């Protein structure tokens, strides 16, 4: 497993423009959107906090994780399949679960960097406070990121080539952004749509992250949905994986 991680990390770093984009996009949006005057004013709906204090950083963290999970990760594995790398690996004792697990861990590391950069940018540029419940926040980020990456692995397992993988990822990503409340606040969603959000991976993730930002421990149902999502999509990715 260590050798796989080392080799795959080196190969992933060759695709550094995609990694830089997934890191720079949410940070850049955080800095730019935070300049809007209305977002820097205390809002009663957020308990007197400003939108830039926790709401905007939470959304940008979600954007970073979705971009990594649904564009960077599937694109790399689909390129391997298209270039015949996976076909050559199929002749070795490497099991699909090890390969997919290695990519999950590597991209989890990229996601951690993205989360740290967003929090630092919010603090340095807008004076946003870091999450108060830091241990709960770390748990939510690790579990939610792993679940989103597992969905990305499903896409990577079935995408026929490198060009189609990001397209498939985008088709999945934008509806998830919608139900997570990126464009319409969850509080004003119709009941049916809010229920869909509650049972998606991203809805519980964004809610649990906001709870920890306010100093509360994440709710058990939110953690359970993310854990089930990780197990379900992780197992599905291994089952659907094709070497060529």
Distance between the termini: 22 Å
The biggest beta sheet reads:
none
* Mean of pLDDT: 81
Low-confidence segments, given as residue ranges, are: none
What order do the helices and strands follow?
HHHHHHHHHH
In helices, the fraction of residues equals over 70%
| Rg from alpha-carbon coordinates | 18 Å
Question: Summary?
Answer:
The chain is mainly α. The chain has helices at 2-13, 16-33, 55-83, 85-89, 96-126, 134-158, 164-179, 191-198, 202-213, 220-240.
Write the layout of secondary structure elements.
Layout: H1 2-13, H2 16-33, H3 55-83, H4 85-89, H5 96-126, H6 134-158, H7 164-179, H8 191-198, H9 202-213, H10 220-240
Helix pairs in contact: 1-5, 2-3, 2-5, 3-5, 3-6, 3-7, 3-9, 5-6, 6-9, 6-10, 9-10
